Amino acid sequence: MYDPDLDALLAPVRPDLERVESLLCATLDQVEEPLGPSLRRFFAGGKRLRPALVILVGRLFGPLPPASYKLAAAIEVLHAATLIHDDVLDRATMRRGQETLHVTWSTNAAVLAGDCLLARAMVLSGEIAAAGTPEVMVRLAESLCTICAGEICQTLAPHRDHSREAYYRRIEGKTASLCAVTAETAGLLAGADPSQSAALRRFGHELGIAYQIVDDVLDLAGDEGQTGKPSGKDLCCGLVTLPVLSYLESSKESSRENAEGENPVETVLRGQCDAAHVRAAIKAIRASGAVESALQEARDHAARAQEALEALPDTSARQTLHALTHYITCRAH
Amino acid sequence: MYDPDLDALLAPVRPDLERVESLLCATLDQVEEPLGPSLRRFFAGGKRLRPALVILVGRLFGPLPPASYKLAAAIEVLHAATLIHDDVLDRATMRRGQETLHVTWSTNAAVLAGDCLLARAMVLSGEIAAAGTPEVMVRLAESLCTICAGEICQTLAPHRDHSREAYYRRIEGKTASLCAVTAETAGLLAGADPSQSAALRRFGHELGIAYQIVDDVLDLAGDEGQTGKPSGKDLCCGLVTLPVLSYLESSKESSRENAEGENPVETVLRGQCDAAHVRAAIKAIRASGAVESALQEARDHAARAQEALEALPDTSARQTLHALTHYITCRAH
Q1: A96, A143, A250, B239: which has the fewest C-beta neighbours closer than 10 Å?
Q2: In which domain, by residue range, is A48 found?
Q3: Do A111 and B85 touch (CB under 8 A)?
């Protein structure tokens, strides 16, 4: 989705991002028909935050290493594959303002599209390995393992763990691990030393955590037209995100009950997902201050990401990474 | 499934295969609960033909390169991932004599299991790349792309192409491409020169084609207790395999009609998949000589695979590869 603020922020690296875009197009052109056009539409909706991270981190250390474009494309393709399969698992109907692939087509098409993109990401990272940086491949593969492990826990574990620790473990697997690896591998290509690599990992991790908290807040406090997803989707799936946790914690102290004598959020979490109940739950969460408290937690993680940047070369790319981190906690979608 | 003939054939490389088995166990141990035990049962049913290929090809050139064990494990894990997703796409209920994962668990579990195994295969091949042979990674990834492209055509193409060319294209994608890459990458690790690499590719390709034709014959002429799959499964999915093609070609000449005045195979292909119709179709195919004619075609490909071996060092490993090729066209499952 187009966002003028993000567009202005990334203006200095626009030519680099255009080159990544060409690589993405070339990659999608290789996808067998009839899946190609659907995937092109799916990709068109992305913000390209991960490619921007690769380019900006690469530029921290001087001229951009040529393999950075391929790494940016590989990570965006890997990310897209995990989103498409995630939508199958969640039975999500909307993503990036469009019907999800398994709704437009079928579950089979979505499973195949994800596999096909994973295979393409493997080719791209295999080529990076062949060009001299095989560690990138191992890191990306390990991150995919972490993402899968998180999904297995979330989807198949017999009991849902509604603790704060479980929430953080989940978003670490879902988002932060790939962001950490994105920053780290971009640094690896550019010759980051071990302490810089550690700082990049920390930066990516904290940024990913902040990003996911904001994403979870937008599920409850965002505008559907802007987020491209129906509000309360996570809640209806029984997913207890940080604002919901904050709400539930605070509602233990002050009793908040609906007409049926029950907390309206717990009603939805129990599976009562009709529009009226979801609206009531969202209203209750918004009124409780839980949204603001979760956003504060996101801002704390963003501040830690910005702190991590201080160990890295003081360049205009670093300033952009700093601003991008700020943008992430203020974005509306 | 245990087969004493295959067991005797592979006796000389049993210790190597045991090491691959340990690596596979270690890999599966890293899969998040609760998926681990189901995957261990799934793996227990495999014949390990691809690992055997890796080991035998490696031994053609002298002492086995240490990375061969990892390559064998990576390929077996990749293969398992594609089988699990393939069963989701086909809605298959049985595989390797057991209920398929998406039946025992759910489609979600099977999608995740496949993803998780793809990620593990990526880690293993990333480690091979890091140890100095990144080409292996690229080849495996390209083979996964070919497998996905084949599945996209088979599953999503609006019209089914029932020609012999389409059949060969499909089994090239489904089976022969990974067998070709298995033999080729095993040779790459062992220092095969370009002409030996080409011979290995050709060997793997022809072996894979022969293997898949026999597999397709077993769907119609095999014993369900031995194949571990219900007979006529492909036919019920509308898949026209080589014996079916041979039957349809010959039935154009001599008219063969059932009580409804229709060719019994076409009845099933049109979606009449109750047990009586499937039995009648299988009986008609078996009686027509189409099974024998397809097996002859498999034997021709096996002979070409054996011819390709002649360009490779004359060792006991080569004799075993020769015998393995013969075994494949004579196996009962």
Answers
A1: A250
A2: 4-330
A3: yes
